[in-house]
């Protein structure tokens, strides 16, 4: 924190949010004024709003509850870090739940009108001429969540305290849209809405050591508008077919090749043992394919592996 120059400061009162630019190398800090308050957060590329924060890729890379060191990724095909969490004094965030919306409070409790993150986000970003349809799934700071034994998500008590903060380093110029989550009848913010402080700082040299290179890390696959066959943003609402459309799908037609594999007796027996478990396919070829790719993932796959061997039902 030391050495950072404060550029902007804004106190978000309950029921409100704000859209504010954060340029590459600057640090956005969101702080608890009272404690126990969830902040929904969204971000757009400041120079191209069609590139926006993506909970899905962020979840894939950093799990359901990202904290310090995690990037906030943009959606495919841009697929790049937009912001990085430099500090997180509480470490209790969520990218599993969507933003709360007016319909939720109506459905759950018959409450309408009611404060809700979607409407707050939409109203905040209207300052930049974005529409309610441009609100995307949010990063939920200080939303304490998990998954129960039946696979269902749950919301636990908010663990943040007065003074807790998160620092977000902008990797590209973004329009950041934080808001005070409007859910007072859920446990998200311990059943009461409290203000949050938003500050933008000029980043220090130490902050900038966490900047990713400007150039894409995977230039073949982190795409920009210049790679699009359809670069024009639709301005009308109805969907009508393009009479000149001719599909060009990647690598189509796909080619496949059968690969004969010679097994010795021990290998054949090992595959037969795998098949006998009922977990790895119905014949030696399927079991071998499983064994090969399990090895390939363990030895060659970079990043989070998301691999768990099949287990017999109990
Ligand atoms: Zn909310």
> Regions with pLDDT < 50 over 5+ consecutive residues?
none
- SSE pattern: EEEEEHEEHHEEEEEEHHH
Main structural class: alpha+beta
The number of distinct β-strands equals 13
Number of separate helices:
6
Bound molecules: zinc ion
In whole angstroms, the N-to-C terminal distance is 51 Å
The percentage helix is: 10-25%
Side-by-side strand order of the widest sheet = 1-13-3-11-7-6
- Average pLDDT rating: 95
Estimate nothing, just give the exact number of structural domains. Answer: 2
Indicate the proportion of strand residues.
Answer: 15-25%
Cα Rg = 24 Å
Shape: globular
Largest sheet: 6 strands, antiparallel
Keywords:
six-stranded antiparallel β-sheet; five-stranded antiparallel β-sheet; binds zinc ion; globular; 2 domains; alpha+beta; 314 residues
């Amino acid at each position: 924190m030391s050495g950072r120059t404060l550029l902007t400061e804004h106190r978000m009162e309950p029921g409100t949010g704000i859209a504010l630019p954060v340029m590459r190398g600057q640090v956005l800090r969101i702080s608890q004024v009272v404690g126990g308050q969830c902040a929904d957060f969204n971000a757009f590329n400041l120079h191209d709003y069609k590139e926006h924060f993506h909970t899905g890729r962020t979840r894939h890379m950093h799990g359901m509850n990202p904290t310090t060191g995690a990037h906030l990724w943009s959606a495919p095909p841009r697929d790049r870090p937009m912001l990085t969490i430099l500090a997180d004094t509480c470490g209790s965030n969520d990218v599993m739940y969507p933003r709360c919306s007016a319909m939720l409070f109506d459905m759950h409790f018959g409450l309408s009108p009611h404060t809700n993150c979607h409407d707050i986000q939409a109203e905040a970003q209207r300052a930049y001429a974005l529409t309610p349809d441009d609100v995307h799934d949010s990063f939920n700071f200080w939303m304490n969540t998990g998954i129960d034994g039946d696979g269902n998500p749950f919301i636990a008590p908010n663990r943040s305290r007065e003074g807790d903060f998160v620092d977000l380093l902008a990797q590209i110029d973004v329009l950041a849209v934080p808001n005070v989550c409007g859910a007072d009848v859920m446990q998200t913010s311990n059943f009461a809405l409290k203000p949050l402080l938003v500050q933008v700082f000029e980043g220090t040299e130490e902050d900038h050591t966490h900047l990713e290179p400007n150039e894409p890390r995977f230039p073949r696959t982190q795409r920009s508008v210049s790679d699009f066959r359809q670069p024009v943003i639709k301005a009308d609402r109805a969907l009508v077919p393009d009479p000149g459309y001719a599909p060009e799908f990647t690598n189509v037609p796909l080619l496949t090749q059968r690969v004969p594999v010679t097994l010795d007796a021990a290998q054949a027996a090992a595959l037969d043992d795998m098949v006998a478990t009922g977990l790895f396919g119905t014949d030696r070829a399927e079991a071998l394919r499983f064994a090969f790719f399990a090895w390939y993932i363990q030895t060659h796959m970079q990043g989070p592996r998301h691999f768990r061997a099949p287990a017999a039902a109990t």
